[in-house]
Design a protein that fits this description.
Blueprint lengths: L1 H7 L3 E7 L3 E7 L4 H15 L7 E5 L3 H13 L3 E5 L2 H9 L6 E5 L8 H11 L4 E6 L15 E3 L4 H12 L11
Parallel strand pairs: 3-4, 3-5, 5-6, 6-7
Antiparallel strand pairs: 1-2
Length: about 180
Amino acid sequence: MVYGFVKQSGGHVRIYSEVGHGTTVRLFLPLDKTAKEIKTAARADAAALPRGDEAVLVVEDNEQLRRVAAARLRSLGYTTIEAANATEAMAALRSDVRIDLLFTDIVLPGGIDGRVLASDATTIRPWLKTVFTSGFVPKVLGDTLAGLDILEKPYRAVDLAARIRRALDGRMTAGETTS
């Protein structure tokens, strides 16, 4: 059956056997041209993502998610400042570092959630734009999210890029969520 599948796919099989050492079977399949086309299209899509040079404060308690989001934003030209919680974020906001947008998880440890953080942040920097993210949308948080700009986890890089750019450009509508 394996031999038939490999031959049907345009490949070949090599079998090497030696007494006392065992047998090695190697399957050789042709390169999938569609995979190469998909990679090429993905590179073209990445080049077309909206970019910017603004500074984004990324607040996320999950270190891996925070680093991925910050890296994606840096790859698009943004400067990023990272914070694991509201206390770290407020310290950054009170400093003289440039911050144009707050990208924060709604659910944060330490008793201050992303909504309170955003409210406190705008008392320090009234012009600050905010994009929220959460993995609990909308089932757990429900109606408490009305009017918030939320990017639901998990999100794709293209969605992150578009949402951040639209928020910075002031093109958000109240209650807009990922499509």
